[in-house]
Amino acid sequence: xxxxxxxxxxxxxxxxxxxxxxxxxxxxxxxxxxxxxxxxxxxxxxxxxxxxxxxxxxxxxxxxxxxxxxxxxxxxxxxxxxxxxxxxxxxxxxxxxxxxxxxxxxxxxxxxxxxxxxxxxxxxxxxxxxxxxxxxxxxxxxxxx
Length: 145
Description:
The protein is α/β, with parallel strands linked by helices. Helix content is 45%, strand content 16%. The chain has helices at 13-22, 53-61, 73-81, 96-114, 127-144, and strands at residues 2-6, 26-32, 43-47, 67-69, 85-87. A five-stranded parallel sheet has the order 3-2-1-4-5, with helices on both faces. Helix 3 packs antiparallel against helix 4 (96-114). The longest helix is centred in the last third of the chain and has 19 residues, at 96-114. It is globular and about 50 Å long. The N and C termini lie close together (10 Å). The mean pLDDT is 89.
């Protein structure tokens, strides 16, 4: 098992690497050239900028049993189909039961924006968000062992 991180805009890269290091789990961080990420523990994969370039690089390296940190529901669908476990930056563990609702909500929001609606952006990140992520990641790791 390894942990793969879709790091473009991900606020929990540091926390994920720390937890992986404590558990001696391999970590691969994927980002595009507009981000600079350094780690003395994780492998960093930097890809060219482009629509979904990080997603495709990550999908090509994910395996059954891996954990993937991402906010991208489309990427989550791809990694679920390969037998891995996606988790969001807020600790939501994505599975077959909640994926359809998440993808539908994303589609409806995009449709509304294309029609001119102005939707609220995400709320400011809180310590509770970080705690929820850490708790969920630890739960996934405990379930795996």
